[in-house]
Design goal:
Keywords: Coiled coil
Shape: rod-shaped
Order of helices and strands: HHHHEE
Number of helices: 4
Strand content: under 5%
Distance between the termini: 147 Å
Strand order of the largest sheet: 1-2
Helix content: 55-70%
Protein name: KIF17 protein
């Protein structure tokens, strides 16, 4: 009767040593994995609120409260991140508007100077090297040290007839 009972109580696999060994390996692996998770959580810089996932609770209400607090903290972090994103976007938009207005202002000034040059060019003497603005542009050189253009000196070329 005892032999029959031992066979029935454990089921068909009660005396299977391979199966017992497999269960031991699985349990050992699960324990090692749990220890790795605990070590990783301890090393993290996050609040102790992450421990909510590992705690054992006395009641479902207690678990709900703990997870609700964690959810509220995460929502607060999300709101802070969204606010930061909006601030950065508005700051970027203001800088963009400022750059565009600067570009428009500089384009208007460039047009003014171009029109002034066109008007003044006709007043410059023909025998002066400044009568040809394209030639002056080609001969001008940008100086990196001073941060300005080096423009050729005005020269009046007098032609003498023999």
């Amino acid at each position: 009767l005892q032999m029959l009972e031992q066979q029935v109580v454990g089921g068909e696999q009660a005396k299977n040593k391979d199966l017992k060994e497999k269960h031991k390996r699985r349990k050992k692996y699960a324990d090692e994995r749990r220890m790795q998770l605990v070590a990783a959580l301890q090393q993290s810089n996050e609040d102790s609120s992450d421990w909510v996932l590992l705690n054992v609770y006395d009641s479902i209400q207690e678990e709900v409260r703990a997870k609700s607090k964690l959810l509220e903290k995460m929502q607060e972090k999300l709101r802070a991140a969204e606010t930061e994103i909006k601030d950065l976007q508005s700051e970027f938009e203001l800088e963009k508007i400022d750059y565009l207005s600067t570009i428009r202002r500089l384009e208007r000034e460039l047009m003014l100077f171009q029109q002034l040059l066109d008007q003044v060019q006709s007043l410059v003497r023909r025998d002066c090297n400044y009568s040809n603005l394209e030639k002056i542009k080609r001969e001008s050189v940008w100086d990196e040290e001073t941060g300005c253009w080096k423009i050729p000196e005005p020269v009046i070329q007098k032609t003498r007839l023999p």
